[in-house]
Design a protein that fits this description.
heterodimer, A: alpha/beta, Rossmann fold, 5-stranded parallel sheet, 31 helices, about 10% strand, B: alpha/beta, 7-stranded mixed sheet, 6-stranded mixed sheet, about 35% helix
Amino acid sequence: MTRVRDALAGKRFFITGSTGFLGTALVERLLRSIPDSEVVLLIRPGRRATPMQRATKEIVKNDCFDRLRQEYGERFDADVVSRVSAIAGDVGTDGLGLDGDGLKKLSDCDIVIHSAASVSFDSPLDAAVEVNLLGPSRVAAATVAARQLAQQEGRRGPVHFIPVSTAYVAGTHQGEAKEELLDANPFSVEVDWRTEVGAARRQRGDSEAESRRPDRLARFNKEARGELGGAGLHLLAERAERLREDWVKKQMVEMGKARAQSLGWPDAYPYTKALGERALVSQFGDALPMTIVRPSIIESALAEPRPGWIRGFRMAEPIIISYARGLLREFPGVPEGITDVIPVDLVVAAIIAVAGESLIDPPERYQGPTVYHVASGVRNPFRYGHLVELVTAWFTEHPLYDSDGQPIVVPAWSFPGRGRVQRQLTRASRAMDLAERVVGSLPIRGRQAEWMAALEEQHLLADRALGYVELYGAYTETEALYRVDRLLALWDRMDDDDRQSFCLDPAAVDWETYVRDIHLPSIVEHARVRTTPGKSIKPNRADRARKAILSTDRHLAAFDLENTLIASNVVDSYAWLASRHLPAGERAAFVADLMREAPSLLALDRRDRGDFLRSFYRRYEGAPVDRLRDDGWELFHHLLLAKSFPAGIARVREHRALGHRTILITGALDLVVEPLRPLFDDIVCARLGEADGKFTGRLDDLPPIGEARALVLADYAEAEGLKLEESMAYADSASDLPMLEAVGFPVAVNPEAKLAAIARRRGWHVEHWHQAKGGAQPLLPLGPIDRRGSLQRGRTSAAALAGAVRRTTGGGDR
Amino acid sequence: MSPRPGFVLDVDRSTPPTLFWHGERFSLERLPEGSRVIYAPESIDPVADPSSAIRSALRHPVGDSDPLPALLRAGMKLTIAFDDISLPLPPMERPDIRQLVIEQVLDMAADAGVDDVALIVALALHRRMTEPELRHAIGDRIYDAFAPNGLLTQHDAEDPDALVHLGLTDQGEDVEINRRAAESDLLIYVNINLVAMDGGHKSVATGLASYKSLRHHHNPQTMQKSRSFMDQQRSELHSANWRMGRLIAAAGVKVFQIETTLNNDTFPPAFTFLQKREWEWGAKDRLGYLAASKALDRTPPRYARKIFHSVKAPHRMTSVQAGEVEAVHAITTEHVWEQQGVVVEGQTDILTMGLPYISPYNVNSILNPILVACLGLGYFFNLYRGRPLVREGGVLIMTHPTPWEFNPVHHPSYIDFFEQVLSETTDPIEVADRFEEGFATDPWYIHLYRTGHAYHGVHPFYMWYWCAHALQHLGAVIIVGGEQAAVHRLGFRAASTLADALEMARDVVGTSPSLTHLHAPPILMADVQ
């Protein structure tokens, strides 16, 4: 029997942050290494899950518990899970949001370990303040309350509080940082934490107010429109609101960073953690026995529960993987600088050992809060240059592979200064931004548009790389040395058995073995990157998506027409119909007029498709109905079919053969799509009013485009008893988003740039359908010259249509 | 100087390179010494005055038939059916023979006071003709007189109301043809006979029939038993049509058949070199060849196609005969043979042919891969009497670019046939068993056939069946210069040069094969002894 284990055996631990990296490891270790111990976890209730369900799903089912599961076998639930209980609560709320029962459970605990933190280095200021700054004090307050409750009932209640902080609260300045409270630290700037809390909360209110100013709102709307085009009010509003929220968040992140840097911290994380320590010590330093544990950068496990165990993608991992994928070519840092990394199991062991001692030492010997660093820099320094060397060597030996199965060569590291890297990355990001804007404004679709989306992805990666440099650069350039005298003294006091079970000595890490054999293999496995050469022989994504779409389980397939099934549009159709009976002499003038109008038509179409169609269809005013209906058939067989995508038409037929309902939903006119009727089960299209055998030029109903299209589809599905989540929609443009989003299986066909980007982000299936190569591809969509010019019937309609053209063009001129 | 007959040239060291068609282009290829090149007979003299010849033929019918004027009377129902865009090839210069014949017929009908006259294009399952095509075939005067009143129609094999079932042949074959034609007091059929398969009972029994009727002879079994389908004595296709024709006659349909034959004037003066034998090319021909091939090399295929499809053939009529179907057709066949027959001694190991840009099914369109196969293995391969030009197990080498291109207006079902059927199997019998009915009854194809200008859904199957005899007979098919993916889909092999193709062929037929080149067009019929 050993000292620490004996002291802690049968004890009950209250733990916050148990779903995190450190928390999960801590829970597992306590359950595995401390006999009969129990853990009570403070967990935020999820929207659909109770705290215990979350605990089971997010903690017990984590591969961290694989070892325990294996050791206990069938008795795992009875002997391990039974020792875990969860209570609802949130460190972001005063009183932790505990109910009476929760407080009672807390009062039954012996040790309270607070490891919940907003560890992201770029969290919004107010969020970091609530969790990191106020969190420790809130847990302490609740613990004090629980002690009182226990003592009223004649029980002991929690005896010790262990908040987990970070070594970086001591700053990143050159020189040594001792294991002492911040009050004693000469480099720590004195600020009143209460003022900071108030300021952060006000900041949130200000940013929220600022984001709602009309000019800002207009900008969000404009940006949303730029991204989605004419996707309809609802989607645009949704997107604009998201942009507003993102903007506020960004503001808050920047505020946090600025404030932190003004006080000498690299970012909001150590700043809020440091103030958190101050707030805690100043309020509860006397009321509650406590020991602060400050780890440095926590990385994958050295040995426990197994070498390389890691949870989540943390700080160094994305940087390393970005480097291995050739995305991040350089990262700032000084080769002789020290990278202070500490494996998670060492931190866990230190916490447990501290907890053990707190019980071993009699309460009367407690002399106020103490601090332990768990860091490697002094005891077992790991130079940045050495790390880079090991990483480069490892990836040279075990390269990642690109999508073509070719190995990626890792770039040589030149240890540039942070400023240079930042400038390079900023330049790259700006260049891509510009390229994206230029390409995005071009009317491209299909493969080029996908290439454009790929460009956007590269841009995102470049931005992310820039983000890493901005965020973490300070840490690789850190020259602070975190002393671990107290930790080593603790290590000295431990007997051999304790040392075996709870190794916390940073000297135990052999960096070469750790990086080469433990850390890198683990994060590469986690990153789900390609580690084998050659093309994959598995059916690719597109094939799988196609198979899912062409399953008999599906219900309904909705199709857009223009550029989805046919490379044509309402202007083409109109030009063809209007020129069908024009005398040869007038055709040139007609073409010239239409060409002159093209830019303004295009612009209107981009702004609002509904307005465009309504105004464009006015041109049909006065055109003879019967004649045009006849011509519609000719138009179809001469122009539309010639410009159709055979693969698209085959797809419609395939869906029907599989028993799916098929529906065409298009803003094109009924007389144009009439010949397509046999292809679909149903057609919903625009319809012009008629009076005295002539078209009025006004639409009978709202044209089925944008949101109306999604509504039509939803109504149709409901009326027919079909499920939208089992349905497909095929469309080519971002203005079709409402329809695409309404179904379970959206398909982007020859997508234009905006839709291509959206489809790529959301993983939607993309089809590239081409016109048949042997089809006639007229330069201009003009009807054949009417040889029956002498026939009265022909001339009337020509005159009517041509007249309509002239009227509208004239109107456009003014 | 009377026209020279067909000729078989033995290639020796002094033989100049031989002209090969290659779709919208051509090339000169040097054939191995000892090869043979078969040339069609030179164009025979046309009738001097076609109009009077036609008039005379109508007045002096052959077989058991009264002269046409005697068959016409006021109050009768008269229908004139005529061959569609698939004949002749290339389309002939104006005036088209159909126009000349129908004008004479209409004159006689007018003289007799017939006022119920309808014109029907005998489409079978072909695409409907466009207005300009119809105007070209029958002339503006007839078109404007009939079309606006709905009296010029195109046979619709999918309109149940416009068809009538006349009964079954003794072999149990359905005979279902155009109702207007069948219910007329007189059905006049105006034919242009380009190859020996055309005309006779096939005109009505096929040209005006429905799928229900056609499927009895347009199938792989019939085609495999037709050796060749150009040879009436040995063609199961011919026999089936004759059984049906006789049943049509027995059912009381009175047919007055008018058949015409053409000479071999296939290309206009700018392309005379295409009509001549290479060693007889003069400076003008050589220059013409150079100019044309250089210009075509620089022309994108799309425009080259356009240029070629605007070519009208200066065909001249060599005969016209009218009256009872079988008697008429016997004379017609003789005329066809007179113009096209070439006696060839013995078979060959390798048969080469240059495929031109046109076949009966792609006038004003594109020779898609299925039509490439059909032109080579269906039409050219079957241009024989007696024995095939190439021995059993021999190799057929064709030159054509064979692009993976289809006209979506004319050949929509071909696209799907190529994608969905040939990707599964190229065996004609399996193709028929597994896929034919689905395509033939597909409502979308039927819709496009009836309302647009699309070949019927089943038509690509017929094209493939046309190849059935050759597919059974040949050891290998190689397409020189063909797009690899498309050629492989057809189940053939692709070679980049003729020399490569010959190398590949040697693997099949042995190291010192005999080679024969079919120098067509102009069309010839090999009488293989």
